[in-house]
Every structure is written in C-alpha cells, then in structure tokens.
C-alpha cells in the first residue's frame, strides 16, 4: 500500500499530472489533493488485497482448507464429488502418496492418475475415526475408511482400510498432504 501511495504522490506532483485537481504548490499537496492521492492509494491497496486473496486460493482458484478439523471433511466431499482438481489441490507438489494397493507414487501427477482411475468407478467413501496430532505447522493424522464402488464387471464392492498421513500448513494457510499412506489396515 505504501508503494501505491508513493507512486500516486509522485505522479500527482509531476508537472504533467493526469489529475488536474492535484496541483503542485511549493512544498507539497493541498489538503484536498492529498485526500485524492490517499483515496487512490487505498483503492490500489484494495485491488492488491483482492489479488492477494486470489493468489492465496492458488492458480486453480480453489480456496485452501485452513481448518485442520475440516481437512478430512473437504477431502471426503471432494472425493465423493469426483472433483479431481479439488483433490489434487490437497497435496503438495512433491507429495509421497501410497495408494490403497501399497504402490508408492511421488508428486501430484501420480496422485492425479491414481484418483482418475479410481473415479472412473464412481466410488463413495466414508472417513471415520479421524485423529490428528499437531506439532507447530505439521500434523500426523489417521483415519479409517469404507469405500463403496462398482468394479469393471458391474459388481458392487465395499472395501475398508485406514490411512496414516502427514499434513503441513502451507504459506497460503491451507493444510496439504506431504505424505499420504492409504494402504493401512482398518483393524
């Protein structure tokens, strides 16, 4: 905001100002000229704040999940909606992801491919027995899950399992997986 005010003041004090009401008078601006410059700076700052919020939502426009207690709710909602972009946004770029079959995948590309294949079967999941232990901006989380889907042969299936994950609070305030191991037994 200060930079916006400085630019507006410099512009207003220049000889070829585009704001005719703000005049150069000796040592500075008139009171009304200052108020116009301040209003321009506040307007500029407001635009910058809006842009900052849009940037915080990521280039995808998806708002980060900033409440750890709602993180699994968001994951479950996005999963059940088969929202691939929303799901991938919950992972850091270089995540270590272990799918339910125990296959280790590194990065969002692997996460995306795994979920795209799974979403083709129109699954629905219920995450329960959710727990997390927090240390500063990192949390160890666990859950049990029940997954219902229809396999390629058209047969309804119900699978159970558990997950143990590590999530980290990122610079935009959102929690994201840095390690997601969905291959644990639900026993």
TrEMBL record:
Q: Could you tell me which Pfam families the record lists for this protein?
A: SnoaL_2 (PF12680)
List, for all copies, the residue spans of the domain called SnoaL-like: 74-173
InterPro entries, alphabetized: NTF2-like_dom_sf (IPR032710), SnoaL-like (IPR037401), Steroid_delta5-4_isomerase (IPR011944)
Official protein name in the record: SnoaL-like domain-containing protein
Organism listed in the record: Sphingobium cloacae
**Phylogenetic lineage:** Bacteria, Pseudomonadati, Pseudomonadota, Alphaproteobacteria, Sphingomonadales
């Amino acid at each position: 905001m200060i930079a916006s005010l400085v630019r507006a003041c410099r512009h207003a004090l220049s000889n070829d100002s585009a704001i005719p009401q703000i005049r150069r008078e000796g040592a500075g601006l008139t009171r009304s000229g200052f108020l116009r410059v301040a209003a321009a700076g506040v307007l500029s700052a407001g635009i910058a704040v809006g842009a900052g919020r849009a940037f915080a939502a990521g280039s995808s426009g998806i708002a980060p999940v900033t409440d750890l207690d709602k993180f699994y709710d968001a994951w479950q909602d996005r999963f059940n909606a088969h929202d691939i972009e929303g799901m991938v946004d919950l992972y850091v770029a270089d995540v270590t992801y272990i799918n339910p079959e125990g296959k280790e995948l590194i990065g969002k590309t692997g996460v995306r491919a795994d979920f795209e294949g799974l979403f083709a079967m129109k699954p629905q999941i219920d995450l329960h027995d959710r727990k997390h232990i927090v240390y500063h901006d990192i949390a160890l989380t666990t859950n049990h899950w029940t997954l219902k889907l229809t396999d390629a042969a058209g047969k309804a299936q119900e699978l159970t399992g558990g997950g143990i994950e590590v999530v980290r609070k990122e610079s935009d305030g959102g929690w994201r997986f840095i390690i997601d191991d969905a291959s644990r037994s639900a026993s």
